[in-house]
């Protein structure tokens, strides 16, 4: 397959215009058009279609662009690692993580790891579970830490690390503060929800589905866990939140906890890697071993 033509298709898809893509790449518009037509002939598929004055990718074009982006990200990753290896052992760790590990687990692990290996540079990217897994598969990170129950991605290897409890919380003094109620009763309260793709949102909706309870009314929607917790502290809303993030607020009496009848919410934390990565660089293996040993010391069997 013509890789140059693939790069042109990616630029056309990004700008939604053959003309703009040609200008951006400083080549002629007919040259771009010819390359894409040749790519369509090579694949036997229609990849773009005209919509008004712009263009859109077909379903087949979207698939090809998505895979091509991964291919070129892999190319960058290889070049980066080769450059580092020419100058000695790999000295950079690129880690992606969902909010909970990124804020309550990794800072401690990374601080202690850096004390032992000060020359290793660490880049930590955080996002929701969908964003983090995309970051990993696009070769923009080497490993990922994700809190997630359901998995359907055959390209990701999972290594179970630990389990985390989740609590239902309400403002201090709320009618359900310290009470035991049914899930159906609690779902009548206005909820603070995370964005689509958040593992906490997925957990809540999954509970509603399993127990055949309507999903709650959305009081507020946030793109961050801390903002949601602060709203509860301020006196508004009900939410499902990881115990690690809210326990100190509860112990200080700033929020209340609700016990839901016969329901305990616990979710696993996984170390995720790409299945086609047969082995890790030395420093990455060191960090993974360090994380596992640190957790085992803190939580002996």
- Given as residue ranges, the uncertain stretches (5+ residues, pLDDT < 50) are none
The secondary-structure element order is: HHHEEHEHHEHEEEHEHEHEHEEH
Q: What would CATH call the architecture of the largest domain?
A: 3-Layer(aba) Sandwich
Q: What's the alpha carbon Rg, rounded to whole Å?
A: 24 Å
Number of helices: 12
Top-tier CATH class of the largest domain: Alpha Beta
Distance between the termini: 53 Å
Number of strands: 12
Q: What share of the residues lie within helices?
A: 40-55%
CATH topology of the largest domain: D-Maltodextrin-Binding Protein, domain 2
The CATH homologous superfamily of the largest domain is called Periplasmic binding protein-like II
Q: Sheet with the most strands?
A: 8 strands, mixed
Query: Beta-strand percentage?
Result: 15-25%
Structural class: alpha/beta
């Amino acid at each position: 397959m013509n890789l140059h033509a693939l790069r042109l298709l990616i630029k056309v898809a990004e700008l939604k215009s053959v003309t703009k893509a040609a200008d951006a790449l400083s080549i002629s518009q007919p040259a771009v058009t010819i390359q894409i037509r040749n790519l369509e002939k090579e694949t036997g598929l229609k990849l773009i279609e005209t919509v008004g004055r712009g263009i859109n990718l077909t379903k087949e074009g979207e698939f090809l662009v998505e895979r091509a982006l991964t291919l070129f990200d892999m190319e960058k990753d290889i070049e980066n690692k080769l450059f580092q290896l020419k100058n000695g052992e790999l000295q950079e760790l690129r880690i992606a993580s969902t909010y909970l590990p990124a804020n309550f687990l990794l800072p401690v692990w990374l601080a202690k790891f850096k004390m032992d290996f000060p020359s290793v540079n660490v880049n930590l990217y955080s996002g929701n579970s969908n964003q983090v897994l995309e970051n990993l598969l696009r070769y923009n990170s080497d490993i990922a830490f994700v809190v997630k129950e359901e998995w359907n991605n055959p390209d990701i290897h999972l290594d179970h690390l630990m389990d985390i409890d989740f609590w239902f919380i309400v403002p201090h003094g709320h009618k359900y503060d310290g009470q035991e109620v049914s899930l159906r009763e609690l779902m009548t309260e206005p909820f603070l929800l995370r964005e689509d793709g958040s593992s906490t949102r997925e957990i809540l909706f999954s509970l509603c589905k399993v127990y055949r309870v309507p999903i709650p009314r959305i009081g507020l929607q946030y793109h961050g866990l801390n903002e949601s917790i602060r709203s509860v502290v301020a006196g508004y809303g009900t939410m499902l939140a990881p115990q690690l993030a809210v326990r100190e607020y509860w112990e200080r009496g700033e929020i209340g906890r609700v016990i839901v009848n016969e329901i305990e919410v616990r979710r696993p934390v996984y170390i995720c890697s790409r299945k086609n990565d047969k082995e890790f660089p030395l420093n990455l293996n060191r960090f993974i071993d360090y994380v596992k040993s640190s957790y085992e010391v803190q939580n002996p069997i």
